[in-house]
Amino acid sequence: MGKTRIGIAGYGNLGRGVELAIRQNDDMELTAIFTRRDPSAVKPLTPGTKVYNIADAESMKDQIDVLIICGGSATDLPKQTPALAKNFNVIDSFDTHARIPEHFANVDKAAKESGHLAFISLGWDPGLFSLNRLYAESILPNGKSYTFWGKGVSQGHSDAIRRVEGVKRGIQYTVPIEAAMEAVRSGSQPELTTRQKHKRECWIVPEEGADLAKIENDIKTMKNYFDEYDTTVHFITEEEFNANHNKMPHGGFVMRSGLTGDGENTHQMIEYSLKLESNPEFTASILICYARALSRLYKEGATGCKTAFDIAPAYLSKLSGAELRAAML
Amino acid sequence: MGKTRIGIAGYGNLGRGVELAIRQNDDMELTAIFTRRDPSAVKPLTPGTKVYNIADAESMKDQIDVLIICGGSATDLPKQTPALAKNFNVIDSFDTHARIPEHFANVDKAAKESGHLAFISLGWDPGLFSLNRLYAESILPNGKSYTFWGKGVSQGHSDAIRRVEGVKRGIQYTVPIEAAMEAVRSGSQPELTTRQKHKRECWIVPEEGADLAKIENDIKTMKNYFDEYDTTVHFITEEEFNANHNKMPHGGFVMRSGLTGDGENTHQMIEYSLKLESNPEFTASILICYARALSRLYKEGATGCKTAFDIAPAYLSKLSGAELRAAML
Question: Which of A17, A262, A316 sits opposite B138 (nearest CB)?
Answer without folding.
Answer: A316
